[in-house]
Task: structure prediction
Amino acid sequence: MSDFTFRAGDGTHRHAVRRGPPTLVDGVPQTVRALGDGRFVVDVDGRPVRVLAVAHGDTVHLQLDGRAGLVERVDPTRAGAGGAGAGGDATAPMPGVVVSWLAQPGDPVEAGTPLLVIESMKLQVTIESPRAGTLERLPFAAGQTFQRGAVLAHLRTDEPTA
Amino acid sequence: MTIRKLFIANRAEIASRIVRTARRLGIATVVPWHARDRHGPALAEADATVELHGEPPVSAWLDGPALIAAAREAGCDAIHPGYGFLSENAGFARAVADAGLVFVGPPAKAIELMGDKITARRFAQRCGVPVTPSADEADDPAGFAGRARAIGFPLLVKGAAGGGGKGMQIVRDAAALPQAIATARAESERYFGDGRLLAERFVERPRHIEIQVFGDALGNVVHLGERECSIQRRFQKLVEETPAPTLSPELRERICAAAVTLAREAGYVNAGTVECIVAPDGAFYFLEMNTRLQVEHPVTEMVTGLDLVEWQLRIADGEPLPLAQHEVRWHGAAIECRILAEDADAGFVPDTGEVRLLNAPQGPGVRFDCGVTPGARVTADFDSMLAKLVVHGADRALAISRMRQALSELAMLGVTVNADYLSRVIGHPAFAEGATDTGFLERHRDALRPRAWTDAERRALVAVAARVVRTPHADTPAEPWASMGAWRN
Result:
């Protein structure tokens, strides 16, 4: 059993996957037929639908009926006990470059604690912690560029989240 | 054809498109690249490539002397500027000619006359082509604000040297005028190095109609019909089509005749586009002339069956126009969508990334002019337009249905593109009716939002993702194999 998050314009959802056959997503069996070259046919409400998919590390870019979405595997070694999913991490509002770190991995943080400064479209923005916990990891060093939606700071909550 | 080797002072899709025609005509091509831009399809298609230097990279494509030197060193006898960059720079056109090379475009004099909005609009007026009431800063800059106010509101304030919507402001009342002038001036200075402004009456619910014209060195001028480019965001075109869906034949004839008059009076040679706005009551006004090939020229090619780059090269080579006006024919309808690296649903913010999976739409009547190859890095260094999707159909309804199908097939996974947004635009009932004006996207903003994903869709996509994602145990090759690199038996 592993967890994945689905991210698109309408928000982020978390799904549990049990590899099959058949593969179960949130307990519902899925039919996936691979056609090669990143092409698949899936079954959506009894209808065969074409899907394009390409993986890059733990991130998978997908497209269904012309609509694109992003699925990320939730790393069990990072997301485990504290229950910190990608939904609670600090993500990049737009592509840019990291200017500086304002906190260090291991630091305890409150909601609103400044974590790092990024620059996007000639604008410097301070990324704050979305909640209280421990700053676990800052994946991008100063000077490194990132894409929109990239996780800029991994947080671990100290108490289990609801 | 005396041109034997052509230097293309451009990049991405338009470089590739020019290479295709040149090759067909037996002309060798040279395409430049930059250390931070080495993924365009043209680089594989051209006969030779040369490296440009500059920081930021875009400056390399704006360095006229370096481009001309590269062209001469490569043994080229002509330069095609494409669109953007130096394509409408009279100084560049003159320097190319002075270097003994053929500039594939109008003479520098024509670029000077028509490239400046103030002189172009005065010239149009002298030719009897209607223009909107306006005030400019060419003379009496001190009284500009007062004269602008006297035109009446709403007003459009823009840079005299501008283009692409940069520095353009709609002003609805006198109180907002000083701020609009300051903003427009700052943007015009920043983008064009020229802060002179122009204010004109803003026509409500305008349609953007433009006429493709061609002139030759013998003084012949023809038009190849109109394009409607009213679907715009931030004054930038997103969807273009021909014929214009609701233009009456009489009005079309009058606008085309005005465009031909303007080009003839200007002694215009090579490809040009006369841009107009058409008011709901059918009144039309000259806006500006683009003295180059337009981004949206393929829709004209689709309905006329002509190759506009071929015409450009033949005329630059001294040949007469390939066809007389009465020999030009138009068949069916064509639509172009600009595929941009941006999140249209999040306020059209540009996106960057790497094209990891590219799926080019195919099928009858479908043309995909693409500027990226798989693995291409999309950065903020260049314009966000990655490709143009163009379709042709026997009528507009067929073109629309082909476009929707093609948009759903198009994929550039790894960077957010606007294909699905365009599909919603093309699929909107108001678009089908031809009820298009420049306020279309703003007016229908709510209807153009994406629907939410269903649970079943998300589960299906997650199932596919689980299948393709790298799993630490299953897919990683054992250490000895991995260390051998790209080993095959």
